[in-house]
Amino acid sequence: MGIRKEENLYYIEAKQFSMILENREGYLLLKHIGKKIGSYHFSNSIYERDHAFSGNPDPNIRTFSLDTQRQVIGLHGLGDFRKPSLVVECGNHSVTEFKLVADRIISGSLEVEGLPSPYVTDKAETLELVLEDVVTKLRLYLYYTAYEDYDTITSFNRLENVGSDQVVIHRQLSTMLDLPKSNYELLTFQGAYAREKTVRRQKVSQGIFSIASNRGASGHAQTPALILCQEGSQEDSGEALALQLMYSGNFQAFIQENQLGEVRLGIGINDDNFSWELQPQSSFSSPLALITYSNQGLTQLSQESQVFVRDEIMSPVYAHQERPVLINNWEATYFDFTKDKLLELADDAAQLGIELFVLDDGWFGNRFDDNRSLGDWVVNEEKLGGTLANLIDEVHAKGLKFGLWVEPEMISENSDLYRQHPDWCIQVPNRSHTYSRNQLVLNLANKEVVAYLKTTFDTLLANHDIDYIKWDMNRNITNIGNGSYYLETQMQSHRYMLGLYELVSYLTESYPHVLFESCAGGGGRNDLGMMRYFPQVWASDNTDAIARLPIQYGSSYLYPTISMGAHVSASPNHQMGRTTPLDTRGHVAMMGNLGYELDLTSLSQSEKELIKAQVSHYKQLRPIVQFGQHYRLINPDEVSNEVAVQFNYQDNVLVTYVRIQSQIETMETTLKLKDLEEGRLYQLVGSGQVYSGAELIYAGLTMSLVQGDYISQQLHFQAL
Ligand code: GLA
């Protein structure tokens, strides 16, 4: 376990997952990545063959080419014609040749300076490899951390300029892996606004497939992650490897199958609009990447990632804390609310057992619609019918916690802040703005702006008894160009991220008792960078239960359930216009952190009774959902008419099944449950019926639903 060096081989060993790197006269070769193979010794690579049109660094050894060796850094100009992972402009060229000069084994994990990292732990070991380019006097530090209790290895790197000339980094990926030829499939999580994290699965073939964002946020359309698996891998079988980037800004990830069928994977900052000036005696660190492995299929890969994210990335204050059932006033009132209306809503919520009242957009400045006032974080006391403190007290008095919506990174042109500091937004001088939701983005690359935001939100939080913050971000970044010269502008997007991380780490550390939920028009920045600071995320603005099924399914591949807010909203649904039974809306939202986002005051008595029952039932089920192991039983792919999810937690098993369209004269689906003890008895809560674990696993349970569209069933078993 951990890191070991034997002769010229480095063994990087996590729980059941290992990488073996070979030092071949200074070149770093990736000898193995996959299952940990005991303490056996490996020999040197023997692949030596002269391939036509490949470059040879040594004229006497035509059989050695970087184009045919598996590596962990890719450099162009030295005979490797695949996509490079590092490109540095050094004077009049950009050819660098990094050779290994030193190594060090460090106990514990490391933090990446200024960027989100998993919490530092001593249950890990880190390999530091130092490579040098003698001509440019650049030093590259590669870090691989192997975690004792996980099938996870993290990696990042740092480029240091020890010479006397400035150089310019044009690309510095966080991790790169070359893998042998095989039949692979690739999974990515794509989509759009209100349709986030759609699972896309495709066969890998010769050429390059890449995903990326240049929006200044990871975006709704892509997730900074790739899963590579053996062709035909299922939930319970096959080898799979996930690469994830812990970064919330512009990213790229690619897979390249070259002319020989070999595969290169890379992930890191997107360099479409990125360069970095590296002055002498300074260094640049890449964001951190996570590499996760499973040799037993996709469920194991997901569970591995879910647990790692929850226990090593999420704040320890919240990782194991049950999340409150909330009511959010957005879809209940939008901007049109009065204090009385809010208190009526809070009253009903309290009576139904809801625990947290969230006041969404519209409480500040002159914010009566989404055209104005972002930046003016001054309470609109006229609209709130008194001070914010007053309202909070009244909500607290009803036995509810109080939460508030903010959108700190934004500024409206129609705001006092803009009138005072027109130069604080992101813009190209002498060009007109580009608007989105009629708002602009503050330049968090500017330290003055970050300092202002720290003070503003510090003051808000210090002076109010706020229990929860919803941190929104409702547009992407355009018009990057505040710098006074080209390269400064090229650095702005990453500097924005450094400013943002500084701001959110400051606020979350200062107010550890405040639960922060991140949002970017739903899941427009649902990534591990944000999750390090905000342990909950509003996964989508689409609150339609049926449309949520694939979104929740996609999220489950890599993110823990406890990170995901899921709300019951009105029917017909505001985004989709679909009418769905309240039962099903409840069952779907109960597969995440349950909340409500509808006008409770307009519901019938029977609907209120049902919600009250849902909330009280969820409080029983909550630890199973939020802390349990998650299993995908039926996936909502393009042809599927149904979805089933199982959670196991201690002696509890919870199965939720949703059928989308009503069908006639077909056999109802039989669900075979997972990971139960064959010889144990499980009692169905409610009916009292008892089953053996073996029966539930092998014979399964045949669902029996009433006719109708969008019908669901929830089954809770307790082991006897
Ligand atoms: C975004 C969020 C919504 C809501 C509105 C308020 O769209 O995703 O949940 O907070 O902003 O303007």
From TrEMBL:
SUPFAM superfamilies: (Trans)glycosidases. It catalyses: Hydrolysis of terminal, non-reducing alpha-D-galactose residues in alpha-D-galactosides, including galactose oligosaccharides, galactomannans and galactolipids. InterPro entries: Aldolase_TIM, Alpga-gal_N_sf, Alpha-glycosidase_related, GH, Glyco_hydro_27/36_CS, Glyco_hydro_36, Glyco_hydro_36_C, Glyco_hydro_36_N. PANTHER family: ALPHA-GALACTOSIDASE C-RELATED, GLYCOSIDASE FAMILY 31. Belongs to the glycosyl hydrolase 36 family. Residues 644-717 form the Glycosyl hydrolase family 36 C-terminal domain. One of its GO terms (molecular function) is alpha-galactosidase activity. Pfam families: Glyco_hydro_36C, Glyco_hydro_36N, Melibiase. CDD domains: GH36. Keywords: Glycosidase, Hydrolase. This is Alpha-galactosidase. It comes from Streptococcus porcorum. Its EC number is 3.2.1.22. It comes from the Bacteria. Residues 26-279 form the Glycosyl hydrolase family 36 N-terminal domain.
